Amino acid sequence: MLQTLVLDLLLTLAYGVVGIALMGVGYSLVDLATPGRLNQLIWNERNRNAALLLTSNVLSVGTIVVAAIIASEDNFLVGLTGATLYGFLGLVIMAAAFLLLDLATPGRLGEILVDPEPHPAVWVTAAVHLAAGAIIAAAIS
Q1: How far apart (Å, rounded) are the C-alpha atoms in residues 29 and 6?
Q2: Residues 129, 99: Cα–Cα separation, whole Å
Q3: Which of 15, 5, 22 is CA-nearest to residue 91?
Q4: What does the pLDDT read at residue 111?
């Protein structure tokens, strides 16, 4: 019983590490997409546009990781590998969607994201991220 608990805790830790690593990659991608430093924009300048975009990215990655874990049917190796690969695929798709949306809309989306005034385009971009995460998650199961 105690061995099972310890094993389950270690497996959970492994999934957590993968999830946090993927969220870190997502953070870096959002940082690349926005002019300036994302940590300065959110924590020092309290930029709601940048915070909303990062939030949608993190929620999408989390949704994908959860779907991969559930779809693994208690096969740890399949779950961990799936979470990693589907997570990276989700980040690639979100980045591609961001670039396509940037091409299809007026102005530069990255510049809009750092505007101190809230902008509706950021809500659209966040929705695209969440939809991409949901699509990947649905495709997993």
Answers
A1: 35
A2: 12
A3: 22
A4: 86
Radius of gyration over every alpha carbon of the chain, rounded to an integer in angstroms: 17
Please choose, from the candidates 50, 74, 39, the residue with its C-alpha nearest in 3D space to the C-alpha of residue 125. 50
Backbone torsions φ then ψ of 120, nearest 5 degrees:
-60, -25
Spatial contact of 136 and 65, defined as CB atoms under 8 Å apart: no
Burial group, residue 38, by CB count within 10 angstroms (0-12, 13-18, 19+): buried
**Helix, strand, coil percent content, the chain, rounded in steps of 5:** 85, 0, 15
Please, are residues 111 and 35 in contact by the beta-carbon 8 Å criterion?
yes
Mind listing the pLDDT tens digit for each residue in 4-40? 899 989 999 999 999 999 999 999 999 998 888 999 9
Distance CA 124, CA 101 (A): 9
